Give the backbone structure.
Amino acid sequence: MATDLNAEILDRLFQTIQQRQGADPDSSYTAKLLSGGPERISKKLGEEAVETVIAAVSKDPDAVAGESADLLYHLLVLWSASGVTPEEVWAKLAAREKMSGIDEKAARVQDGKNAAD
C-alpha cells in the first residue's frame, strides 16, 4: 500500500517540473521536453509506455519498476505542459473510486468520450 511519502514524491517531482518551465533547454532535460510542447512529450510518453509493456512481458519486475518511474515522470511532464495538476487527476480518480470499472467506462461512452480498454 502506498504511503503519503510516496505521494509526496510525485508532488515534489511535479513542482520541480513546473520550475523548469521556460528554463534553458540546453541545461535541463525537463526544459527540453517542455520546449517541444505536448506533441513531443506525448511521443516520448508513448515510447516509455511501450518500454514498460516490454518489461512486463519480459517478466522483469526490476525493469517494470524502472520503466514505470520513467513513464510517471513523462506523464507528469505532459500534465504540466497541458495545464493539468496532480490534484485534478487525483480528484478524477477519487470520483471513480466508488464506481465499478465497467460502469465508469459505460458512463464515458455515454458522454461521448473515447473509452479505451
Observations:
- Residues 61-82 form the longest helix (22 residues).
- Residues 1 and 27 are 36 Å apart (CA to CA).
